Amino acid sequence: MFQRVLIILCLAVSLLPIRALAETTTVAAMQQEMIDDGAIWIRLKKTLFGRDKVYGYTDTHVRIVVIDPKSGRIVKDKTIPIPDPNDLNTPDGTGLSVSGATD
């Protein structure tokens, strides 16, 4: 019984690095993925903790991905929609109100 548990434990531990390798990514791979998804502009920055931050801009949204360069793990992956300027609540579509304006 103990040998079975030990064998299963050893197999489980031996498979952990394979799973970790499958989830790692690089900045170049993330840039290519964003280009494939239709990004028209990509910007790279470093965070305060030395992580790589990749911004991918399209016409409709911004995708922000933070990658830990030591492990290659994606720390954050967030997509933010860009509002259509024509949908804003002002006549000129800027969303800015003009104080003191008269009609």
Write a compact overview of the structure shown.
The chain has 103 residues and is an alpha+beta fold. It has a domain of 63 residues.
Please explain how this structure is put together.
- The protein is α+β, with helices and mostly antiparallel strands and 103 residues long.
- The protein has a domain at 22-84.
- The chain has 2 helices and 4 strands.
- Helix content is 31%, strand content 26%.
- The radius of gyration is 23 Å and the shape is elongated.
- 7% of the residues are buried.
- It has helices spanning 2-23, 27-36, and strands at residues 41-46, 52-57, 61-67, 74-81.
- The chain has a 4-stranded antiparallel sheet with strand order 1-2-3-4, covered by helices on one side.
Please describe the topology of this protein.
Blueprint: H1 2-23, H2 27-36, E1 41-46, E2 52-57, E3 61-67, E4 74-81
Antiparallel strand pairs: 1-2, 2-3, 3-4
Sum up the structure in keywords:
26% strand, 31% helix, elongated, 103 residues, 4-stranded antiparallel sheet
